[in-house]
């Protein structure tokens, strides 16, 4: 049966009126809002917005953290047939300018004084922005701007209107159709203006239902909403699936209290990007260094056991009676307390996505009993394209196509997706829409990859970056630079990698060591060094990096499609790649083409068979001064391995 977000709200209000819909932590105390109270708040907000002049088909921006009243306002706008447009709360005022202008926005709801100031600044260039409502009144007592009002005032006026027109809200909510636009999410706009991704009630709800069915989610789940609501991933987890399943969404008091709130709530359904899982693990390891010798020994013994048998146990495979008994003891002494300390003692399903996650990091969480999995999707697909089944989670894939999804690999290796969750269009941008949506309903993801023999999708790179080996034993083989770079960056001692190989007969890489990690490694071995350049060229460091490279080559050899991307030669750069020197973007992405040109003598030396190469590089310091760094870099060969077919 077709449904909409307002109808889902009304259904939960009728079925579980007194059950908590959301909790918000305020002044250290969790305050619950029941489903019936949420429905009443939405009704009053919708009536207030109607009185203020919000009409069907209009856009309304929502700017703030995860807060029950912000979620209720999104529902109120949708109940009137209007379209909420969540924007990032940490965006600068000028970043809000294009979305507000593009969508001709007249109404804004913001969280606090910071966001009010931002909207007032924007209004100088967007005079149509007539109404600005705020949730938190602190600091706004003396503001007397036209059209500025508190959410409390809006609710109060709506309450009066609702008493006078008791059927208005439900009648308006019933007019909303599943095919109507439900929300618009703006992309990051890294190559121009942001694009407004238009989604209907049907696309968002369909994908939320598909994800819920896949992981058997129920109204009993607990979720912590701490990522920006403007990001569609958070919106799906804490809004669309919240309304589909009827579970409880918990809003932390602030960004600084998230870890405390995580432990207090103990979510059963959890999402975080890899960097969050990395940070949690780092904090654990730092604390263990400060623990007593006995505790450290116990921790390392049982973590060794977990590493050996934990992932197999999580995948439902037999591990033997002896290992089962030892694991149970480890669970009592180490794994259980560790999960509790991480706030994950009740997690039934945990997901990560957005970028590659290191296999060791992935295995760590699964080995201690946390069901960490990966998913694949994007704003344009309403997130859920591929998900990993409970017993088939691997670090190098992103899962199997979920319900309703078809995947096709184009001749150039691009992943094409057909799904009920595809965007309706890019707002006011038919040219961009036509570029990504084919006439027969396939979406161009711009990602290159393939389905492996188990039916799991493996993403290897962006299509535009995938090349081919030319000449030599691997002539014509696929070359995926980002995939190679990421596999090396899985080692904590390697910070950045730049891979070359397109239209060449072999793959060569330049490596940036992680100065802190390798410095600690060197100190534990009593290896003296005088700064980054000296450390990077130590024979011991080269030997260690060579081990990492050859481990990656062994992994690549096991994958017939990518075996030709094995690394033949490498060097360790004499300086850290830096955005100030133009080598990285401001979001720390490697500018491979720029580096290839800047370090052409090194590229020529790698491919020319030389064993060393002198290089002098201009650098820019933080205070604006310039200087240079020079060194004679060693170049080493790495062992490559026969493919599985050759070995057979």
What does this structure look like?
With 648 residues, this protein is of the alpha/beta class. Among the domains are: 5-271, Rossmann fold (3-Layer(aba) Sandwich), CATH 3.40.50; 466-647, 2-Layer Sandwich (GMP Synthetase, Chain A, domain 3). Helix content is 40%, strand content 21%. The chain has 22 helices and 28 strands. The chain is globular, with a radius of gyration of 27 Å. The mean pLDDT is 91.
Give me some keywords for this one.
alpha/beta; five-stranded mixed beta sheet; GMP Synthetase, Chain A, domain 3; 28 strands; globular; five-stranded parallel beta sheet; 648 residues; Rossmann fold
Beta-strand level of the residues, as a percent range? 15-25%
Radius of gyration: 27 Å
- Mean pLDDT metric: 91
Q: Largest sheet, order of strands side by side?
A: 4-3-5-6-7
CATH topology of the domain at 5-271: Rossmann fold
Detail the poorly predicted runs: none
CATH architecture of the domain at 5-271: 3-Layer(aba) Sandwich
How large is the count of helical segments? 22
Helicity level: 25-40%
CA-CA gap between termini: 54 Å
Q: What is the strand tally?
A: 28
Largest sheet: 5 strands, parallel
At the first level of CATH, what is the class of the domain at 5-271?
Alpha Beta
What structural class do helix, strand and pairing data support?
alpha/beta
Global outline = globular
